[in-house]
Specification:
- It is built from 14 helices and 23 strands.
- By secondary structure, the protein is α+β, with helices and mostly antiparallel strands.
- A hairpin with a 2-residue loop joins β4 and β5 (69-73).
- α1 (21-30) packs parallel to α7 (189-200).
- The relative contact order is 0.15.
- The structure holds uridine-diphosphate-2(N-acetylglucosaminyl) butyric acid (EPU).
């Protein structure tokens, strides 16, 4: 999929942020643990969710999706070998490991797909499952696990607060008839939302949002209706677009404290911004100061926003620096930015970004979801026309992005290859 993008003077208007992609992905898989009907509201209309629905259909869950509401009935769920292509399409498919261990005490599954920015091991997930009694047979492509002596409750300390491993181990523990304690867990808002959802189904869990989570035994889970939290990364993305290109942009349906690390960077840069609890307005700022950004686990600056803020830093009066401590190889956007005449380089593990007044449109490519969102911003900033290739990456995680940007006054259309040649 290709977007044709033209530089426009200034964006202006209002956007309501949708439901959180990463919270929704874990919650949708969590719903299959319940032998009852679960209604999930504010589910974003993105390809990652549609890919997940295909997997749910494959394991005989009944699913309907309408008006951002997903209804899941897992009463007829069946054990299936999950070495199917759909698993490779997205990262969050690894949540079927924890969920299947919980339900069937076994799983045969391909390793997950998702954005490619270097190695993305799942050793912390597997070490946790092993500690709980799983016998693991792992190859380069797949993982097979069985629990000959049943899943056991444990006290597990994660070697790093991985978001995925935290959720996967909660999924595996939830139906065990004794108490499980997970230490050094991730504290991201998506984890809190996931646990809140499990609690709405009757789970007995404490400590979400802190470094220790305790999962106590329950008789069974029951159906519920739950509304997914707003997407803090989508919110951060449009805030950055606003800081780079807007005369005035208001974002609604957000939780401001969840983007605090980005707002601190904006304040350091001198961005003109008006922050309310559930709404932020960003105004045109003439002079931006350079900054140093180091990504880290929540509440530090999120890795998911570093590729997107990169083009904004091209407007700052001096040299900025980004160090991604979570994914040091999440840098595919740098070579693409150079094609637009951006003054960016990589020295050791640092991305150095300098003022670039003369960005020019070109044909550039998305190599992953957030890198794609960053390149889309850079194309909007560049003079003249740009063609952005492989934009299916962007649509894995941003609903209605073309529609939203057009409402703000951007010139952006889908086009086909013939138009470029
Ligand atoms: N890690 C390991 N071993 C593991 C798991 C993780 O070494 O078993 C390392 C990773 O290589 C990385 C760090 O730990 O260096 C953090 O990884 P984490 O497990 O927290 O990431 P994830 O769960 O695979 C989720 C989001 C990502 C987001 C990261 C970090 C989902 C589906 N994905 O991935 O979101 O970047 O947390 O916050 O929730 C995105 O939305 O674009 C995206 C990539």
């Amino acid at each position: 999929m290709i977007y044709k993008i033209e530089n426009v003077p200034k964006l202006e208007g209002k956007i309501a942020i949708g439901g959180s992609k990463n919270a929704a992905l874990s919650i949708v898989v969590g719903a299959i643990l319940c032998k009852d009907i679960v209604i999930l509201k504010n589910i974003p209309d993105i390809t990652d969710i549609h890919d997940l629905i295909e997997i749910l259909n494959y394991i005989h869950c009944r699913v309907t999706y309408q008006n951002f509401t997903l209804t899941i009935d897992a009463r007829q769920i069946e054990y299936k070998d999950l070495r199917i292509q759909q698993i490779k399409k997205l990262r969050a498919s690894y949540y079927f490991m924890g969920a299947f261990l919980s339900l069937f005490e076994k799983v045969e599954i391909y390793k997950p797909g998702g954005c490619n920015f270097g190695k993305r091991p799942i050793d912390i997930h597997l070490n946790g499952f092993e500690k709980m009694g799983a016998i693991i047979n792992e190859t380069e492509n797949d993982v097979c696990m069985t629990c000959p002596n049943h899943l056991k409750s444990q006290q597990i300390t994660l070697s790093f607060p991985s978001v995925g491993a935290t959720i996967n181990l909660i999924l595996a523990s939830i139906l065990i008839k004794k108490t499980t304690v997970l230490r050094n867990v991730a504290t991201e808002p998506e984890i809190v939302d996931f646990v809140q959802f499990l609690k709405a189904m009757g789970a007995n869990i404490d400590g979400e949002g802190t470094k220790t989570i305790i999962i106590r035994k329950i008789k069974q889970l029951h159906g519920c209706s739950y509304t997914i939290m707003p997407d803090r990364i989508e919110c951060g993305t449009y805030l950055i677009y606003g800081a780079a290109l807007a005369k005035k942009l208001t974002l609604t349906n957000i939780i401001s404290r969840q983007v605090r690390s980005l707002l601190s960077i904006f304040i350091e840069m001198g961005v003109d911004i008006d922050i309310k609890q559930d709404q932020i307005t960003i105004y045109e700022t003439k002079h931006l100061k350079p900054v140093k950004i180091v990504t880290g686990p929540f509440p530090s600056f999120p890795t998911d926003l570093q590729q997107i803020i990169c083009p904004l830093l091209l407007k700052a009066d001096g040299q900025s620096m980004i160090i991604d401590t979570i994914y040091s190889k999440r840098i595919s956007h740098i070579e693409e930015l150079k094609k637009l005449n951006a003054n960016v380089k990589i020295v050791d593990n640092c991305m150095l970004i300098s003022k670039s007044n003369d960005l020019k449109g070109n044909i550039v490519t998305c190599n992953d979801l957030r890198g794609g969102a960053g390149m889309l911003l850079a194309c909007l900033m560049a003079k003249g026309k740009s063609y952005l290739m492989n934009t299916q990456w962007i649509e894995r995680g941003y609903q209605n992005i073309i529609h939203n940007l057009k409402l703000l006054g951007a010139s952006i259309e889908r086009c086909d290859e013939n138009e470029i040649l």
